[in-house]
Amino acid sequence: MGDEPADLSTARSTRLGVVVLVVVLHVAALLGLIRAFAPDFTAQVTRTVLSTFSVTVVTPPPAPQPSKEPEPAGAAAEAGKKAVAREVKADKPKVDIAKTPAPKAASTGSANSSGAKDAGAGTGAGGQGSGTGSGTGGTGTGGGLTRKVEKIAGEINSAKDYPRDTRDLRKDDYVIIAITVSAEGKPTACRIHRPSKDAQANAITCTLALQRFRFKPATDAQGNPVASTYGWRQRWYD
């Protein structure tokens, strides 16, 4: 009698089915007891189990509507007529326009003056003279004098009254001084009108003139003595 392998798969599956059936029966019996004696506990367990599952319901979007076809563009209208400005008639002016031409401007000429009685090339009118004053003519510097100032005393020695060491500097030269003479005939001031090359000699001339010169004063139109200016030129020849 030989040894043959036995088929154990059928006996194993049978035992497994019996075990599962026994477990299911025990669980069912246990649930029945719990439901019978503790109904609140069963409901709470059921809610807890169901709360772990969440189901999200998504509503599908609506189907897109078909787009309308664009309306065909209309044709361009005819060109409008060219605008023309309306004619406006100007009103007649209230003031009559002169028909005669306006008179010409004042006549022109080559005269040196306009509207004066006497014409000339000078700068003024009145008396004539070569001096700087006005009124009575004369060669002096005053105005309106009937008698000019006159030197009556006092001299300056061109050789002795000046230093010898500057003689060559002032040789053939001269200085002009302007002396103010009072109504009493006394010199009161002196200024250099035209200086020489020797400044020291210029100052000496003014000093000596104030010290030595005496004058007959000038008089006005009424014969009253008045102050005036006297010019003196000092020359050096050696």
Automatic annotation (TrEMBL):
<feature type="transmembrane region" description="Helical">
    <location>
        <begin position="16"/>
        <end position="38"/>
    </location>
</feature>
<keyword id="KW-0812">Transmembrane</keyword>
<dbReference type="InterPro" id="IPR037682">
    <property type="entry name" value="TonB_C"/>
</dbReference>
<dbReference type="GO" id="GO:0055085">
    <property type="term" value="P:transmembrane transport"/>
</dbReference>
<dbReference type="InterPro" id="IPR006260">
    <property type="entry name" value="TonB/TolA_C"/>
</dbReference>
<feature type="region of interest" description="Disordered">
    <location>
        <begin position="58"/>
        <end position="146"/>
    </location>
</feature>
<keyword id="KW-0472">Membrane</keyword>
<dbReference type="Pfam" id="PF03544">
    <property type="entry name" value="TonB_C"/>
</dbReference>
<feature type="domain" description="TonB C-terminal">
    <location>
        <begin position="159"/>
        <end position="230"/>
    </location>
</feature>
<keyword id="KW-1133">Transmembrane helix</keyword>
<dbReference type="GO" id="GO:0016020">
    <property type="term" value="C:membrane"/>
</dbReference>
<feature type="compositionally biased region" description="Low complexity">
    <location>
        <begin position="105"/>
        <end position="120"/>
    </location>
</feature>
<feature type="compositionally biased region" description="Basic and acidic residues">
    <location>
        <begin position="79"/>
        <end position="97"/>
    </location>
</feature>
<protein>
    <recommendedName>
        <fullName>TonB C-terminal domain-containing protein</fullName>
    </recommendedName>
</protein>
<feature type="compositionally biased region" description="Gly residues">
    <location>
        <begin position="121"/>
        <end position="145"/>
    </location>
</feature>
